[in-house]
Amino acid sequence: MSRPAELRQLNDDELAQRLNDAKEELFNLRFQLAMGKQDNSARMGQVRREVARVRTLQGERKAGIARPNAGTGADKRADKRKVAR
Fold first, then answer.
1. Residues 6+ apart with CB under 8 A from 8
2. 3-class SS of residue 35
């Protein structure tokens, strides 16, 4: 599973490839589940979140939204502390 910061470093073609790979894996996991061969049911959720992350990044890029420091929880917590004081 990829972290959002890692995905942000990929170009559009690499993101599209990552999305295709994740969708294919999700299809295979669903097929395994239907056949009763699924060993790791948590993997389906992980792959679904991966698909959602990639689609979110593609949407941000299409809309022209720049998020250079997104994904760093420390920055968000620091901003909340400044506002609370």
1. 57, 67, 70, 71
2. helix
pLDDT tens for the chain, 85 residues: list them.
678 888 999 999 999 999 999 999 999 999 999 999 888 889 999 999 999 999 999 999 999 887 766 555 555 555 566 666 5
Both tokens of 27, joined, read 């299809």
Task: Find, among 43, 74, 52, 54, the residue nearest to 8 by Cα.
Answer: 54
Helix, coil or strand: residue 41: coil
Instruction: Give pLDDT, residue 41.
Output: 85
Alpha-carbon distance of 39 to 51, in angstroms, equals 21
* H or E, element range at 2: none
Supply the range of the domain harboring residue 52.
4-84
The CATH number linked to 37 is 1.10.287.310
